[in-house]
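U., I forgot to send this yesterday:
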Amino acid sequence: MQTDIEIYVLSCPTEKIINWLESTFTLVKKSAPSSLCSKVTVIMNDHDVEVTILEQAAGKRFTSIWFNSDQTPWENDIACAKQAFNALNCEVRCNFQGWEEEGEQDPDQWWRINSYEEGPFIWN
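Result:
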């Protein structure tokens, strides 16, 4: 089980992301600490999960969606990315293997899902 889940969505409005979270989970709390950052708390598997939505997290067009919990319904980032792509209909990127403290993975190796393809690629 991963300690957290993080995906990046391309050109997807924050309100659309929050609507996806509301339609998929029970929304408990919502706040906007800054103009580029929204925080929501949702209930997943009977646990409160903090979700941070940060616009312009990777360049100006990518928004990060970070689930700060090991209690998500997804096995890994890619499983979350697939659900997000189906719900949001915008390109989704995530770390290829999940982040590991001592991993041997290439930090530029990512997974991309869009309407043309799905698979690994180098994001640098």
